[in-house]
Design goal:
The protein is α/β, with parallel strands linked by helices. It has helices at 2-6, 33-45, 59-69, 107-116, 138-143, 182-192, 210-222, 254-267, 287-293, 326-335, 355-365, 395-404, 426-431, and strands spanning 14-16, 25-26, 50-53, 74-79, 84-89, 101-102, 122-127, 150-153, 162-166, 172-176, 199-203, 228-230, 234-237, 246-249, 270-274, 297-300, 304-308, 316-318, 339-343, 369-373, 376-380, 388-389, 412-414. It is globular.
């Protein structure tokens, strides 16, 4: 992929982040990874061509697009320069690929593919990198047989590789836990539209990251498929519906936006993100309210979001509904006066790395006091000192601690290329915080 290798920093062993002066400016953020992945899943099941405009072109979405194409029933064309992915029906049946599908560290695509493989004739094996082979999939795998799809984890340990015998996705009624990942529910919802009969999904406990399921239902409705629901306890996808395809435009990524809103918070400047606003269904825009509670001011309009930094203070906050932006928030907490207690974040233990442990270790390197709990963190703000940050092959750890380097001189980020998972142009975007616009290596 040209874009993912265009910035030399993506191939460097480390980068040193240059501190930035306070510059008020607009920051352009790429398309939402969550929506891009959902529309890729939808496009693969639509009856006509689907063109996804302002799509995020990153490691995760490229893995997913290629995986979809491997079933043979659609082709997926990626145009990096236009930020567009086009999915076109080929007229051929959907068949399990002969080769194992490999998705690297792409968590949502792997989960979406597990249910999707239920539509393909034959046996599909889906696998990922070493960390993906540790991540839990048992809840989703065990929910599929009730819908007519045989599925198992190959090693019997509840983690990838996952083997799916497809071709008879009948539908019906199933139950699933929502406590580990909302993506299990999203996988069932997205693929229920192509089931032979109606699909009823019952959540047996409390669903984490509820806004992510709202995004899934929103994307499905946008493409002509209605989901009936009883809050977050039961979801029904009536039979006889189909995705319409056509032109789709993806709004900017709220998770990607978080780094630059947090940069405004710690630098005391104003940052505006155009193209996303008050109507967004992305749960991570909730970080705006959190930053306001910490002392920032916000201007949220229909088509833009602005944050201006202020006197930062610690708060108590429940982040169960937006765990992906916790790393960004943690960095702000390191600069805030007093203690910030972040609770209900157990799901971070099973992300790209154990993010609670990773953030705790790296903040302590910077001289910040952190109390770590199974599902929470307490950060006592101070004056972070220079440190070399280990990133654990986790894009969110790398990008969050890079923001700390805009204020603390001497922050070094190891393995800067891991940002390619979700934001290949992150380092170029960070350059815009310097008046000279020069990059750092």
């Amino acid at each position: 992929m040209g874009m993912l290798s265009a910035d030399a920093r993506l191939n460097a062993p480390q980068v040193t982040v240059r501190p930035a002066a306070c510059i008020d400016h607009d920051v352009i953020v790429p398309g939402s990874k969550s929506y891009t992945n959902r529309y890729l899943a939808i496009g693969s099941l639509a009856s006509r061509q689907t063109r996804i405009q302002n799509a995020l072109i990153s490691d995760d979405t490229v893995f997913f697009a290629r995986a979809i194409g491997s079933f043979g029933h659609v082709s997926a064309e990626i145009d990096e320069s236009a930020s567009r992915i086009t999915i076109s029906p080929t007229g051929r049946p959907m068949r399990a690929p002969a080769e194992e599908i490999f998705v690297g560290g792409a968590g949502a695509p792997l989960r979406f593919l597990i249910a999707m493989a239920g539509h393909a004739d034959g046996t599909t094996t889906i696998n990922g990198n070493r960390r993906m082979q540790e991540r839990p999939m048992a809840d989703l795998v065990s929910a599929l047989p009730a819908l007519g799809v045989e599925a198992e984890t190959v090693r019997g340990n509840g983690s990838p590789p996952v083997r799916v015998v497809g071709g008879d996705f009948r539908g019906g009624r199933t139950s699933i836990s929502g406590a580990t990942s909302s993506q299990f529910t999203s996988s069932l919802l997205l693929n229920a539209a192509a089931a032979q009969d109606s699909v009823e999904i019952n959540i047996v406990d409390d669903l984490v990251s509820k806004p992510d399921v709202d995004m899934t239902i929103d994307a499905m409705a946008d493409q002509g498929v209605c989901v009936e629901r009883d809050g977050y306890r039961k979801f029904t996808v009536p039979s006889g519906q189909s995705y319409r395809g056509g032109e789709i435009s993806v709004e900017p990524d709220a998770s990607g936006m978080s780094y630059f809103l947090c940069a405004a918070a710690i630098l005391g400047c104003r940052v505006t993100i155009p193209g996303i606003g008050a109507g967004s269904r992305q749960g991570d825009i909730g970080l705006v309210d959190v930053l306001v509670r910490m002392g920032c001011s916000a201007d949220v309009r229909r088509d833009s979001i602005s944050i201006k930094g202020g006197q930062l203070r610690g708060i108590d906050v429940d982040m169960k509904s937006m765990p992906d932006v916790v790393p960004s928030l943690v960095v702000v907490a390191a600069f805030a006066a007093g203690r910030t207690h972040i609770s209900n974040i157990a799901s971070l233990r099973v992300k790209d790395c154990d993010r609670i442990a990773a953030m705790t270790a790296q903040l302590r390197k910077m001289g910040i006091s952190v109390d770590e709990y199974p599902d929470a963190m307490t950060i006592t703000g101070g004056i972070p000192r220079p440190a070399t940050i280990d990133t654990y092959d986790d894009h969110r750890i790398a990008m969050s601690f890079a923001i700390a380097g805009l204020r603390t001189k001497g922050v070094v980020i190891r393995d800067p290329g891991c940002v390619g998972k979700s934001f290949p142009k992150f380092w170029q975007t960070l350059d815009t915080f310097h008046a000279d616009g020069l990059s750092t290596l």
